[in-house]
Amino acid sequence: MNGLRLPLKLCGKQALSKIWFALLLSLLWPQQTTADEVALSLERQASLRTLLHQECGSCHGLLLKGGLGPALTADTLRGQSAEQISLTIMHGRPGTAMPAWNRFLQPAESLWLANFLLHETDAAP
After folding, report:
1. Cα–Cα distance between 110 and 61 in angstroms, integer?
2. pTM of this prediction?
């Protein structure tokens, strides 16, 4: 093989220290995600808004201002992080009527919904 030459054999402490260094570096290095990995298509965003008003609206009110479930307006959700709201969407609230949506949504989709709820002043359809 021409080009890259790797040592045929690492021994003892040298090998162990290199493995630990690589492991530590991989854990500490910030993970970079591309916009394509995070962004949802416009079609998917539209379908998530429809899901929000059709499915979530059946309990939280068609305007998401409350019903059987609490209001999902930016004002009422203030103080919660998008991650907290996303976890509630994905796993529901045990002992309440709030179901888990993790069978139907990807984590990125529930996070998108959470951010949508937090930043839309009027999330009405």
Report:
1. 19
2. 0.66
